[in-house]
Protein: DUF3887 domain-containing protein
Amino acid sequence: MKTTSLFLFASLLFFQCANATIEGEDELIEVSDKILDNLIKNDFEAARSDFNDQMTAALQAQQLKEVWNGLSTQLGSYQSKGDVTTDTIQGYRVVYTILKFEQSPFKLKVVFDDADKVAGLFLVPTNAK
Structure:
């Protein structure tokens, strides 16, 4: 009986953790999608509209343009958006979006601060965390 109760408790705990979502997940995914949409439209200034002050100062529209265009040069044109996942890392909420390019997929990683502003924006290989 004790073993069965422990197993049920562990199973429930695993199920709850596996299905846990980060706070405000839907809104953060919307912001991440908006950034991607603006990158696709080459509207790099608009892509920065949800950045926090530090990100706004650190990443200018021209730099964002160079990174996005460089990625397209290396991987071919952008094709479509794939799976979206979320995580919490060291207190920051993170949205990952798989980006499908002609030659290879890549991952958009958008990191949010406590005020739901973008505190980090990364374009990384799909196997990176």
Notes: The first strand starts at residue 78 and ends at 89.
